[in-house]
């Protein structure tokens, strides 16, 4: 009995400690971000790595999701003779929800994990100590460029995802299901609001922050050699994905 | 006793544990400006841990560490960060940044902490590499180097800023006897020309006696014996005698 309560206690302690660490590092990242020297080259490198290199993944996921969305809703809506609204539904779901969340999760898997692995390896091979010994704050040198890249690039990737998803839906509806292209197009934009676009963009910026910071923090606190790096990588992906899904709910509730 | 201003590094009653394992137990040592101190001791006795306390990479559980009269063990992070430009440290395994070339590794502190032009940086890097007899490997990646080469590049990176205080963690381990001597000569030369304060960890007694003004032996979490190389060699302390002679039997292994 005792040990059950003990374990629950240990779990909550660990949870609160991890949360505290996360917000402490967020604070430190924020204060270093506005302070020179700015690592221009590092910032660029991370933007390319996170943004440009993720385009193929974003292309595939959002486009196919748009296509599947059109397929599914077309089937369903046909039953109630509402085919004309397929365009609206696809566009709304892609812009408000699917594109930001899918892009967030995909980039977490691709980049958040590799950030944890990279920084974790630096930790276990004393490169973090070496950075400090060279009078360079690891938060400034490692965290800031990555987190900035996340906040800047995720919205751009999401906009790309929006376009591709909507286009994918259009292709399926018009080419495969025989929807009228003109009707579909006008219907796509008919109920769309600038806020729908904004909501997705704001969300994705938050996701970008979450996935990069979580990757960095998990890597930074790696212990225990190569095995530790593996654990840090896995836990970065799992933690960031869970936080993204939770944040998604609350942001959606909050934003509109 | 020396006047306080002559002391560059002072560790006072330092205790440090990792979990249940106590590594440092009431360790105290004063190191004077322009002095070269060598710390010796068995594997796993806490030599690297001691060195990391001097540059503030580890904080003591109890006790204080002073550098130039400033308490480094209680410095706010930003100030500590600035303070560290006075240090150069080479790590036991080199700790080179493996996302960068050898050139970028050595240029890293120069780019960040000096106003040197790209040309000046280039020639300073070449100079540092030449000192460790590794000219021309600028564009290589750390992963392409041997362990000994990596250590020498780490050494070159540590000295590139010509810092006041140099900390070397086993700079000659894994080097052949000739290169060990090269590195030892280099440390002596820097002590003489740049007036640096040097703390070196080594297992190599030949190197130790060559570079040291003072040798200190770490055992059981504290300095158990220290003195000039000559005195140290003559020490009656059985622990020291066993270590110098490298015997398997004795108080160290009991
Ligand atoms: N970050 C750490 N976390 C936990 N334990 C540590 C840590 N750093 C060092 N230790 C422990 O402290 C002890 C001393 O380690 P240290 O690296 O200082 O030994 P050393 O004297 O440098 O040995 P060697 O000559 O083999 O390099 C070891 O038992 C090690 O396990
Ligand atoms: Mg060591």
Task: Please sum up the structure shown.
The complex is a heterodimer of chains A (256) and B (254). With 256 residues, chain A is mainly α.
Structural class assignment of chain B:
alpha/beta
**H and E order of chain A:** HHHHHHHHH
Beginning-to-end CA distance, first to last residue of chain B: 35 Å
- Total number of helices of chain A: 9
The separation of the N and C termini of chain A measures 45 Å
Mean pLDDT of chain A: 92
Ranges of chain B where pLDDT stays below 50 over 5 or more residues in a row are none
Helix fraction bin of chain A: over 70%
Regarding quaternary structure, how should these chains be classified? heterodimer
Largest sheet of chain B: 6 strands, mixed
Computed CA radius of gyration of chain B, to the nearest angstrom = 18 Å
Share in helix of chain B: 25-40%
How many structural units, i.e. domains of chain A?
Answer: 1
Task: Please explain how this structure is put together.
The complex is a heterodimer of chains A (256) and B (254). Chain A is mainly alpha-helical and 256 residues long. Chain A has one domain. Chain A is built from nine helices and no strands. The longest helix of chain A has 39 residues. Chain A is elongated and about 65 Å long. The model of chain A has no long low-confidence stretch (mean pLDDT 92). With 254 residues, chain B is of the alpha/beta class. Chain B has nine helices and ten strands. Chain B has a six-stranded mixed sheet, with helices on both faces. A four-stranded antiparallel sheet of chain B has the order 2-1-4-5, with helices on one face. The longest helix of chain B is centred in the last third of the chain and has 18 residues. Chains A and B meet through helix 4 and helix 5 of A and helix 2, strand 6 and helix 3 of B. The structure holds adenosine-5'-triphosphate and magnesium ion. The site of adenosine-5'-triphosphate has 11 residues of chain B, from helix 1.
């Amino acid at each position: 009995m005792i040990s059950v309560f003990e374990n629950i206690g240990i779990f909550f302690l660990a949870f609160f400690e991890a949360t505290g660490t996360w917000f402490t590092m967020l604070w430190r990242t924020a204060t270093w971000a506005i302070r020179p020297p700015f690592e221009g080259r590092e910032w660029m490198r991370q933007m390319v790595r996170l943004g440009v290199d993720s385009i193929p993944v974003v292309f595939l996921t959002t486009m196919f999701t748009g296509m599947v969305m059109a397929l599914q809703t077309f089937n369903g809506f046909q039953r109630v003779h509402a085919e004309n609204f397929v365009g609206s539904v696809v566009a709304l779901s892609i812009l408000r929800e699917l594109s930001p969340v899918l892009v967030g999760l995909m980039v977490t898997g691709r980049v958040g994990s590799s950030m944890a692995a990279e920084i974790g390896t630096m930790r276990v091979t004393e490169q973090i100590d070496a950075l400090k010994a060279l009078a360079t704050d690891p938060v400034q040198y490692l965290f800031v460029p990555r987190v900035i890249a996340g906040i800047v690039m995720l919205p751009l990737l999401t906009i790309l995802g929006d376009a591709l998803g909507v286009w994918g839906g259009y292709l399926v509806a018009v080419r495969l299901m025989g929807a009228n292209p003109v009707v579909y197009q006008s219907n796509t934009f008919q109920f769309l609001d600038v806020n729908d676009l904004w909501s997705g963009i704001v969300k994705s910026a938050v996701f970008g922050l979450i996935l990069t910071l979580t990757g960095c923090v998990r890597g930074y606190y790696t212990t225990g050699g190569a095995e530790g790096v593996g654990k840090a990588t896995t836990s970065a992906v799992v933690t960031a994905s869970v936080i993204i899904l939770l944040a998604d709910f609350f942001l959606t509730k909050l934003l509109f | 006793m020396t006047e306080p201003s002559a002391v560059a590094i002072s560790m006072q009653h330092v205790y440090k544990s990792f979990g249940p394992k106590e590594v440092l137990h009431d360790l105290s040592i004063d190191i004077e400006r322009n002095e070269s101190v060598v710390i010796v001791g068995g594997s796993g006795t806490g030599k690297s841990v001691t060195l990391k306390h001097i540059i503030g990479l580890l904080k003591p559980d109890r006790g204080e560490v002073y550098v130039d009269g400033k308490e480094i063990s209680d410095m706010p992070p930003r100030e500590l960060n600035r303070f560290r430009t006075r240090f150069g440290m080479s790590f036991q395994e080199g700790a080179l940044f493996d996302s960068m070339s050898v050139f970028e590794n050595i240029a890293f502190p120069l780019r960040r902490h000096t106003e040197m032009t790209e040309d000046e940086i280039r020639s300073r890097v070449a100079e540092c590499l030449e000192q460790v007899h590794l000219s021309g490997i600028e564009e290589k990646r750390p992963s392409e180097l041997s362990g000994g080469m990596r250590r020498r590049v780490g050494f070159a990176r540590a000295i590139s800023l010509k810092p006041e205080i140099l900390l070397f963690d086993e700079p000659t381990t894994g080097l052949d006897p000739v290169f060990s001597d090269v590195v030892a000569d280099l440390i002596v030369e820097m002590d003489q020309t740049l007036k640096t304060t040097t703390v070196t960890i080594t297992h190599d007694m030949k190197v130790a006696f060559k570079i040291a003004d003072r040798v200190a032996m770490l055992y059981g979490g504290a300095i158990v014996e220290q003195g000039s190389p000559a005195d140290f060699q003559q020490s009656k302390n059985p622990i020291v005698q066993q270590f110098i002679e490298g015997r398997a039997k004795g108080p160290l292994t009991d």
